[in-house]
Known about the structure:
- This protein is an alpha/beta fold.
- The protein contains three helices and eight strands.
- The strands form two sheets. A six-stranded mixed sheet has the order 1-5-8-4-2-3, covered by helices on one side. Strands 6-7 form a two-stranded antiparallel ribbon.
- The chain is globular and about 40 Å long.
Amino acid sequence: MALFAAALLLTAHSAGYVRADHSGHPFGSTANCSDPPGKIPANCVSVGNTMFHYVYVSPLVTGDLRQSLLDTIWQDYNPTDLTMSTETTISSLTDVEAYAADYNDNGVAGWVVCPADSPQGINAHSDRWCQKQEMRFNKDPIFAAFFADDPSRDHIVCHELGHTLGLQHWGNPPASPSPTAATCMNVNTPNGPVNLHQTDKDHINGYY
Length: 208
C-alpha cells in the first residue's frame, strides 16, 4: 500500500550546506509535484523559502491528531535551527495548511502537495520552494491504523511535516532505498518511530 506522498518547503540555505546526500539519505525537492483530481496524490517534496515555517492548523484537524501535530512542532522541529509556529488563519506568511478529512481510499493516509497556484520558485540549490503547501491526513476507515493511538498519530504528523521541509523517505528497503534507521521519515510504518533521526535534524540545520 502506498502510504505517503509529499510536497516539501525548503528555505534559505546556509552557505556551507553541501547539496549531496547526507549519510546516504537524500534531502531536497523531488521533480514530480502534481495532484490531479481523482488521482492518487503524487510524491511531491518541496523546501521552504526561509528559516521561518508557519503552519496553519485547520479546525478540521481536531482532538488527539491536532495535539500530536502541535507536539511534533515543538518537540521535533523547533529544537532545530528552524523557527516553526502555528497560525489560526491563513496569511501571506503561511508555509503549510494542515487539513484532515475522509478523502476516500486514495492510496495514502497522509500526503503533502504544492498546489499549482501556490507561491513557488527554484532556489540556488535547484530545489523547488513552495508556500501554502497542503498537508492532508486521510481519515478514511481503511487508514484507521495510522490514527488509532498516540504513537501512530505522532509518527504520521512528524512524517508529513518533514516533507514540507525537504525531508524524504528513508529506511525500510526496498520501499525506500536509504539505510534503515529509527526515524519518523520511515515509509509504510504505522505505529512507527515518532521522532526525527539526528540525520534529519542535521539536514534541516545545514540547509536552513
